Amino acid sequence: MAFEKFDKSAAIAVTKPARVSVSTSGIFSLTWKAYEMLGTPKYVEFFFDAERRVIAIAPAEEPSNAYQVRLPRTDESGPGVRGAVSLRGETFLKYYGIDFSRVWRRTPWIEGKFLCFSLDKSAADEDVVADLTPDVI
């Protein structure tokens, strides 16, 4: 039996809970678990339910009206995944007047094909000025 080298960055990516973060530049970041909840698509579409104040992301059938998923870098010698998956969402946020002047992080859930998360903060969610704390497993 051969030894396998432990890859700390890959372990952090796959052990983090499902989360969606929105940065001050309008970038949506999904932890790998949140991305897996979507079925790991190459392209996604954004949806908004103004009455419920819920954003939804769904796999796109075709890339014409979709956003490309930016995958984390991989190390050819390692097991693969590194960090979060990102989506450019500034235009979507501006169109619906959704505030992204602060970084905010939400816990997503699935409704049908949609990965959903609320604009309203729950007890498990947070708004952060900067994420300066190291990841702890």
Q: Would you write up a description of this structure?
A:
With 137 residues, this protein is an alpha+beta fold. The chain has one domain. The chain has three helices and ten strands. The strands form two sheets. It has a five-stranded antiparallel beta sheet with strand order 6-2-1-7-10.
Number of individual domains: 1
- Residue share in helix: 10-25%
Q: The biggest beta sheet, please?
A: 5 strands, antiparallel
Shape: globular
Question: How much is the radius of gyration in Å?
Answer: 16 Å
Q: Give the H and E element order.
A: HEEHEEEEHEEEE
As laid out across the biggest beta sheet, the strand order is 6-2-1-7-10
What is the structural class?
alpha+beta
Number of strands: 10
Strand % is: 25-35%
Separation of the first and last Cα atoms: 27 Å
Number of helices: 3
**Contiguous runs where pLDDT drops below 50 for at least 5 residues:** none
Mean pLDDT: 83
Please outline what is shown here.
This protein is α+β, with helices and mostly antiparallel strands and 137 residues long.
Topology overview:
Elements: H1 8-15, E1 20-22, E2 27-30, H2 32-37, E3 43-49, E4 54-59, E5 67-68, E6 85-88, H3 90-95, E7 103-106, E8 109-111, E9 114-118, E10 126-128
Antiparallel strand pairs: 1-2, 1-7, 2-6, 3-4, 3-5, 4-9, 7-10, 8-9
